[in-house]
Amino acid sequence: MKRDSEALKIRTKDFALRVLRLYRSLPRTEEARILGTQLLRSSTSIGANYRAACRGRSRAEFVAKLGIVLEEADETVFWLELFQEGSVFPAEKLRDLVQEANELVSIFVSSVRTARENSGD
Asked: For residues 3 and 64, what is the distance between their CA atoms, to the nearest angstrom?
């Protein structure tokens, strides 16, 4: 379990760094700046909140913080979809990030479900 949580900490941090690189390469338009800021905030929150969840003082706190991680991951998918569907940034350049964001959502959906089951909620 400890090894899995460390691997996920690294994975979420790597994801945030990839989004940061994307942010730096966005077009210099108002819409790209606004959407980019939202994307940067939600994507970096995934890793930060996951780390906080791992430091939770109780099972209930862990589950609650994991729920926040899931919300941030899902929000990140939303912003990436807007970039694609709004033609703000080339969809083919976003494909790998969208895939990773969706995988993170799936991981955290499963993690929240398992954590809730293990806590009796």
From this structure: 22
- Spatial contact of 55 and 35, defined as CB atoms under 8 Å apart: no
Chunked mean pLDDT (size 10), the chain, 121 residues? 86 98 97 97 98 92 95 98 96 96 97 85 53
User: Comparing C-alpha atoms, which of 32, 30, 65 is closest to residue 48?
Assistant: 65
The yes/no answer on whether domain 2-119 falls in CATH 1.20.1440.60 is yes
> For the chain, what are the domain ranges?
2-119
69 CB-near residues (< 8 Å, 6+ apart): 46, 49, 50, 53, 108
Nearest alpha carbon to residue 80 among 48, 46, 109: 46
Residue type, 59: R
